[in-house]
# Entry
Amino acid sequence: MAIVVNMPRLSDTMEEGTVAAWLKNVGDKIEEGDILAEIETDKATMEFESFNEGTLLHIGVAEGDTAPVDVLLAIIGDEGEDISALLNGGAAPAELKEEVSQTEAASESVAASSGAAEIPEGVEVITMPRLSDTMEEGTVAAWLKKVGDTVEEGDILAEIETDKATMEFESFYSGVLLYIGIQEGESSLVDAVLAVIGPEGTDVDAVLKGSTSATAASAPVEEKKSEKPAEIKTEAATATVSANDGQRIFVSPLAKKIAKEKGVNLADVKGSGDHGRIVKKDIENYQPSVQTAASASAPVLASKEASTSKAISSTPIINLPVGEEGSEEVKNSQMRKVIAKRLSESKFSAPHYYLNIEVDMSNAIASRKKINDLPETKVSFNDLVVKACAMALKKHPQVNTTWGDAAMVYHQHIHIGVAVAVPDGLMVPVLKFADQMTLTQIGASVKDLAGKARNKKLTPAEMEGSTFTVSNLGMFGIVDFTSIINQPNSAILSVGAIVEKPVVRDGEIVVGNTMKVTLACDHRTVDGATGAQFLLTLRAFLENPVTMLA
# Structure
């Protein structure tokens, strides 16, 4: 029977969604867990998977169109099935009408009883804020106030580590800090209770109980609301399987499918979804424990020992190193999780290819020395590279693009991201309008942004909007390397160290200074000839720095 799929609510503030791309066409067979479409919300573009099997019979919202939440998105059913009644808004079955009336009655009942769970006047329950568009959970890096302290509006309550940076979180209320729900170093999902602020002497237990009971009271209504007859059921199903001990394991269909492909035992995976439900990211992030691996290998080791015991007894004893094996499990930071996700998406979605050239840096060395002889002037080789990239991008706009399924975006501005190593991973602050900056402005800006990055003080605005990226490992003595494209960019330049080596000039072998650079390109936007021409222009600027000052 036909199943109606409505526009889903993919974020807590989403009121409407835009279909960025359909990954299935009308007439295609749909399996449970297949990705139907990419839907752009108010926060991000997300994949929307099917929880049903059948044939895609109808698409209600075309690519590029926007529709409110719960509007008909698609219909899945049997091939050739008549869906005219659903498209024409046919009368709902009597059972559905009855359930809707029951739901409305339940809603009125909850509304009437919710007064008992109301939070007292003057008391504010503060939840884990969403400090970035991709943030799903946060870690309290430090509390700047403690229970019992007086808090004024605008005071900094805590430093919270998001998936992008550590940011200060200020209070929007005045009162006494009555309760801390998430301790320093602990992580929690967005909207979890972070703290309670109110008048001194407030019964915090009653406030917390009232807050949770209000949530619990509304849950049955939402659950009841989602239940509809089988023929037009839109509930996001959760698959269940049984563990060896007979307990049920709640797992999403897509997670179950991925686990089967990877050979992961669901009983060993801890779910991060509602009520411990195992979702896609739990399977992708799952790492087998050392104990599991050891137990699996024990029978093999035992058989080997038995078969070789005679041989060992006749072999001369040799003194071998003796020590204690050990390992340590370090929890992944939010930054490390996002780095892993973003780079994996880039590497596996963008067809990379690499071009490299060797640049004669003799003139660049001499020019930099003269520039730095000027008072209060300090320019690095990296500043010269960034400036040369900005000017080369103006001559080759094809490299300054972003790929889209429907259209390719040519950026008329040049914002260059500069990769900076930090203790927890890698951050990419962005130099806005780099082509309009002087060498000294580039140098000062890079120094300032790199310092903020290492101190975790970068704002989201300082890390967004890059159209091209430069990654320099030359200061570590690395001569040649390749980088993964920092999407949505189309290219990234890897810069190696300047090396003194024999070179041929005018038919003679002399001592020269060369630097290797490698351009990683997205073949969807940048063809090989275009990338090669960009590198030739870049080399011309670096080998003759005076041309960058004209």
About this structure: The CA atoms of residues 353 and 521 lie 6 Å apart. The first strand starts at residue 3 and ends at 6.
